[in-house]
Structure formats: structure tokens, C-alpha cells
């Protein structure tokens, strides 16, 4: 069995399929970037699979009831569960299009956390993601140490008391104010709870 990893630095892909073909027992579809999924026509989808359709959407030489005009996303690399419409895939693709490729993995992790608000279509608020993202770290403890240094706490604590500071406990307490999700490379993404 081969397990394929999803590339996290490229636009998510969706497998767009023809529902009429699927209902007739044929798996006809193609992988597309999510950001163009809602713009793919049935004619273009069938042509990509080597199938010609007439102007009404009927497949040449087949007697299947009705035209082949309805499509559905049957598989995808989006951070959502289950199938979706091409329109929904296109909206997710547009969101990813507003991000830099290096942010894709963090955005997927953010969606998994359930943090932030969503719009009427169930899409997360990108501004909240960008405001709450505290970066990718090898561990939350590394982030906590960085924050400790950045806040200048060592400068405020007398030298003779510094050995008594338990960084692991401080980090553990601090983590209650954050969400931590695994990154695809073994590190973690840290998000501030806003």
C-alpha cells in the first residue's frame, strides 16, 4: 500500500467528477486547483477525460438520461471533511489564494483548531488567522522560551532568583492561552486564543 503525502506548499487540489457519469457507474473526473474549481464547465471536464459532449451537454454516442452538466467535488485536499460543491471548493481556493504558500500548512492547522469566527459559508476569517498565528516552532516550550526572552523577564528577575524559575511549568501554564497544532514537518503551529 502506498501512502501519498499532501504537499502543503501548493494550492490545494480537488477531484471534480461528473455526477451523471458517476450515477451510470463511470468514474469521470479530473484534479484541478481549488481556486478554479467553480469555473470548470462540464464540457471542459469531459474534454480533459477524452470524452466529447454536444452543446446540450450530452455525451456523444451514449444513451444516459439527461445531460452531463452537474459536477461534484468527490475528493480534495481542503481542510474540511467530506465532499463539497465546486462553488464551496472555489471559495476555499480563493482563501488559499490570499495566503502565501508557506502559510498554507499553518492555515490548515488553524482550521483544525476551530478557533476564530466563520462567515455564512463556513469559511474562516483570514484576518483572525493572521493576527492569532504565533509561528511554527519545534515545540511549544521553544515558543515559550522565545516569548520569555522577548518580554525581557530575565532582566526583571534578580540574578540570584533566576535558577529557581521552572520554565517547563511556566510554559505549561502559558499553553492554556494558546492552541497548538502539529505541523506537517513534525514541528508545531502556535495560535494565540483571541
Fold and architecture overview:
The mean pLDDT is 89. The longest helix is centred in the middle third of the chain and has 12 residues, at 86-97. The two termini are 42 Å apart. It contains eight helices and six strands, in the order βαβαβαααβαααββ. The protein has 194 residues and is α+β, with helices and mostly antiparallel strands. The chain has two domains: 13-98, no CATH class; 131-192. The radius of gyration is 23 Å and the shape is rod-shaped. The strands form two sheets. A three-stranded antiparallel β-sheet has the order 2-1-3. The chain has helices at 19-23, 42-48, 86-97, 104-113, 126-132, 140-151, 153-156, 167-174, and strands at residues 13-18, 29-33, 71-76, 133-137, 178-182, 188-192. This is Antirestriction protein. InterPro entries: ArdA (IPR009899), ArdA_dom1 (IPR041895), ArdA_dom3 (IPR041893).
Summary, kept brief:
This protein is α+β, with helices and mostly antiparallel strands and about 190 residues long. The chain has helices spanning about 20-25, 40-50, 85-95, 105-115, 125-130, 140-150, 155, 165-175, and strands at about 15-20, 30-35, 70-75, 135, 180, 190.
> What gap, in angstroms, lies between the N and C termini?
42 Å
For the residues shown, what is the average pLDDT?
89
Q: Globular, elongated, flat, extended or rod-shaped: what is the shape?
A: rod-shaped
Q: Into which percentage range does the β-strand content fall? A: 15-25%
Uncertain spans, ≥5 residues at pLDDT below 50?
none
Based on DSSP secondary structure assignment, what is the total number of beta strands? 6
Structural class: alpha+beta
Let me know the largest β-sheet. Answer: 3 strands, antiparallel
Whole-number tally of structural domains: 2
Percent helix: 25-40%
Spatial arrangement of strands, main beta sheet: 2-1-3
Number of helices: 8
Element-by-element helix/strand order: EHEHEHHHEHHHEE
* Oligomer kind: single chain
Whole-angstrom Rg: 23 Å
Amino acid at each position: 500500500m502506498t501512502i501519498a503525502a499532501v504537499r502543503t506548499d501548493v494550492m490545494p487540489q480537488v477531484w471534480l467528477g461528473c455526477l451523471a457519469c458517476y450515477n451510470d457507474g463511470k468514474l469521470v473526473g479530473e484534479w484541478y486547483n481549488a481556486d478554479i474549481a467553480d469555473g470548470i464547465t462540464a464540457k471542459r471536464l469531459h474534454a480533459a477525460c477524452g470524452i466529447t459532449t454536444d452543446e446540450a451537454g450530452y455525451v456523444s454516442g451514449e444513451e444516459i438520461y439527461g445531460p452531463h452538466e452537474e459536477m461534484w467535488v468527490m475528493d480534495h485536499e481542503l481542510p474540511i471533511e467530506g465532499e463539497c460543491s465546486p462553488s464551496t471548493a472555489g471559495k476555499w481556493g480563493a482563501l488559499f489564494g490570499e495566503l502565501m504558500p508557506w502559510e498554507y500548512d499553518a492555515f490548515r492547522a488553524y482550521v483544525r483548531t476551530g478557533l476564530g469566527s466563520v462567515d455564512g459559508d463556513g469559511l474562516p476569517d483570514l484576518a483572525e488567522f493572521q493576527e492569532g498565528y504565533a509561528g511554527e516552532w519545534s515545540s511549544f516550550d521553544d515558543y515559550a522560551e522565545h516569548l520569555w526572552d522577548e518580554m525581557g523577564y530575565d532582566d526583571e528577575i534578580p540574578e540570584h532568583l533566576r535558577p529557581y524559575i521552572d520554565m517547563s511549568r511556566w510554559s505549561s501554564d502559558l499553553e492554556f492561552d494558546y492552541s497548538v497544532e502539529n505541523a506537517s514537518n513534525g514541528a508545531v503551529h502556535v495560535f494565540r486564543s483571541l
